[in-house]
Amino acid sequence: MERSFYEELRYRGFEPKGLPRLKDLIAMAQGSGSVKIYACSTTIEAMGISREAILEGCPIVGAATFLAKHGKTGSKVLIF
């Protein structure tokens, strides 16, 4: 069975000490109603991440689609 991104980090020894899990932080951000999180289609392909491993409620889009939706709206964008 394929590991999720977070599980892979834990497997490699990147277990955060005393911090919420990334999955929980994302859920809190999405629950605020003011944060939208997208997965980059090019990045997940390049990293070999399956589409099934992407968190539910996190659309997979390309850069052009993302910028068409949010590039001119005055939104604050954090990309990493």
Structural class: mainly alpha
Figure out the total of helices.
4
**What is the rounded distance between the termini?**
27 Å
Overall, the morphology is globular
Largest sheet: 2 strands, parallel
Rg on CA atoms, Å: 14 Å
Q: Quickly count the domains.
A: 1
Short overview:
With 80 residues, the protein is mainly alpha-helical. The chain has helices at 5-11, 22-31, 41-46, 63-70, and strands at residues 39-40, 60-61.
Task: Describe the protein.
- This protein is mainly alpha-helical.
- It has one domain.
- 39% of the residues lie in helices and 5% in strands.
- The chain contains 4 helices and 2 strands; from the N terminus they run H-H-E-H-E-H.
- It has helices spanning 5-11, 22-31, 41-46, 63-70, and strands at 39-40, 60-61.
- The chain is globular, with a radius of gyration of 14 Å.
- The model has no long low-confidence stretch (mean pLDDT 80).
